[in-house]
Amino acid sequence: MFNWRAFWREEDGATAVEFALVLPLLLSMLFGIVAFGQYFAISNSLQQIAAEAARYSVSEPYFADRKDRAETFLTSPGGRFSFLDADHIINTEICVFPEDQTDCGVTNDFDAVQITLTYDLDGTAVAIADSFLGIGIEDITRRSYLAY
Hints:
Residues 13-55 form the TadE-like domain. The protein is α+β, with helices and mostly antiparallel strands. It has helices at 4-9, 14-58, 66-74, 101-104, 125-133; strands at residues 89-97, 112-120, 139-147.
């Protein structure tokens, strides 16, 4: 005959049960930290590459070639920004002022460059977190404006 009293008083395996109950919460928190960190790293890198492209384009002495110089700079971000994949930069808008004022919706009377980059988050930890939580974060857009 089985001794039920001894079975219910037994504490062997209690730690394993507690760990099994807490593990999903710990893994969720760890994944959230990774996803937020990746979002922050991509966002910061995108802002930095937009700012560097704006500064790089200004070094072109011919006003008409500044847009091409910025586009050339943006073609290979991986060497300088390891968190960015050039294939995920889905929208690049480069405006050189004052000639592109009507296209970019900004009006000013001085020379400037504005670079707007949009990064697709598909395939990242942020996209996976978005699929679970339904936050609606599909891409990141950052802009850099440099007047000179």
